[in-house]
Amino acid sequence: MAIDGKYAGKITFADRPKEGAEEGISLLRKEGVTGIYLLTGDKDAPAKELSSRLGFDGYKSQLLPAEKVSALEGIMEGGKKGKTVAFVGDGVNDAPALSRADVGIAMGGVGSDAAIEAADAVIMTDEPSKLIEAIRISRKTKGIVIQNIVF
Questions:
Q1: What is the mean pLDDT of each run of 10 residues along the chain (151 residues)?
Q2: Considering the entire predicted model, what is its pTM?
Q3: Going by fewer Cβ within 10 Å, which terminus of the chain is more open, N or C?
Q4: Coil, strand, or helix at residue 39?
Q5: Strand, helix or coil at 114?
Q6: CA 9 to chain centre
Q7: Dihedral class, residue 148 (left if φ above 0, else alpha if ψ from -120 to 50, else beta)
């Protein structure tokens, strides 16, 4: 922005993280989730700042949908054998990665129809804390299934 032809400053627009995102990541770590990454189509500077502020283990920015899939596959290949990789997204650009992940989770509150259709699970609100609830329910369910098989 300029005033009388002289530089006066700039205005920057950036997405804000979902309310409760920082707490959600902290709770994921307490549940034993490791390797939490940010894969985004956003520019590098805001992605780097967001990754640092929220405590991600790493980030990749300026990704097109196919590049998100490639980055996700790199994470999947680089991880420990037997570990499940989940991808959480809400936009049409996330749909290919949602379908490629071991578990694709769409945030359905403002999620696109394409993301919801491609996902294995849909969280109907945009509360990141619901991810923890879903993990706890799935672990409990898995325990009950194993008990039933054994008995």
A1: 89 76 91 93 92 93 96 88 88 93 86 87 87 92 96 89
A2: 0.82
A3: C
A4: strand
A5: helix
A6: 33
A7: alpha
